[in-house]
Amino acid sequence: MPAQALTERIIGWRRSLHKIPELGFQEHQTSAFVESRLREIGLTEIRTGVARTGVVATIRAGAGGNDGAVLLRADMDALPVQEVEGREYGSETPGKMHACGHDGHMAMLLGAATLLHERKDSLKQDVVLCFQPAEEGAGGGREMVEGGELDLTGVSRAFAIHLWSLYPAGTVHTRPGPIMAAQDEFTAWFRGRGGHGAAPHNARDPIVAASLGVVALQTVVSRFVDPLSPAVATVGSMHGGSACNIIPEVTELIGTLRSFDPDVRLLLRHRVEEAFAGAARSAGCELEFEVRPGYPAVVNDAESATIAGSVAGRLFGKEKVFETPPLAASEDFAYFLQKVPGAFILLGAGNEERGITAPHHSPQFDIDESALPKGAELLAALAME
């Protein structure tokens, strides 16, 4: 059966999942839906409760020559975003939405499961279908890997596809080496001495200190990081004070650091703290600084990225395959690729003519569903390859 014959079914799965968004490690309805569909397809080797709410199914190779399994991964969780009104398949849970395409990822993997189950006698390697919870910051991928899932299933290579609304539907984008950034979060507390706004000389103003810190932060990347090594240091939140005439005791900055090289990642943490400490001292304040390590960089194995591009070119035409520049977003598929070779692939799902251009994590986010059977076919073909 060609993937196009599954189009209506795959879109139906995606829309059903879109209606029941659940946050990380809360994907109970989602897991039950996935398990039920896998059994309808005909799969029997299914485990639930993996990394709390994940689902893992295995399709055994029928053609011999098994040199380890190929893992195909789809993430499951939604986001705390209120979806725009008026969609016939919109979220039925207030304040939660599949605003990053994970509903489509699961639908594509269910489509690939259907194709691979039909073609299992031709499989040369076992295929592990991994429905992973909690990608959006909670580290479900890390929990799966640290729990020994790759060892248990004998995985020797891994692939994942992420729908990407900023690329035209049906185009395929990947690259060897780093494709997504490592991510860290920081909080800086500038502690001063409160006082009256009309007598600032009797206080030590943490708002001034934090403001100097924001300015100093701009020199970290521009003056301490090699211009050929991408890096980002951003303050996304600043809180201090409660009234126009009161100098507060504390002002808080919260931000994110993004990098691709491990040495640059360590440099950013060190230099940002130094910049803030200098700003605090210059304003007569003290600094408390905390870094919360996030996901590592997603680094594609060169051979796997080449395989992905070659297979996509054969399926859809070479003119549809592109080498993407590295993206500063982060992804916990990174943990899989630290353990086994593989590739992370972006599948275009935008359509400017239909107004499907909203970025990920936006209330307006949507996908061109014509990309879904293509994603299913590509996943299946990668496993067959």
From TrEMBL:
Full protein name: Amidohydrolase
Paste the cofactor note: The Mn(2+) ion enhances activity.
One GO MF term attached to the UniProt entry:
N-acetyldiaminopimelate deacetylase activity
Task: Note the SUPFAM superfamilies from the entry.
Answer: Bacterial exopeptidase dimerisation domain (SSF55031), Zn-dependent exopeptidases (SSF53187)
What cofactor is needed? Mn(2+)
Q: Does the keyword Metal-binding apply?
A: yes
Family annotation (NCBIfam families): amidohydrolases
Q: What Gene Ontology biological process does one annotation of this record name?
A: diaminopimelate biosynthetic process
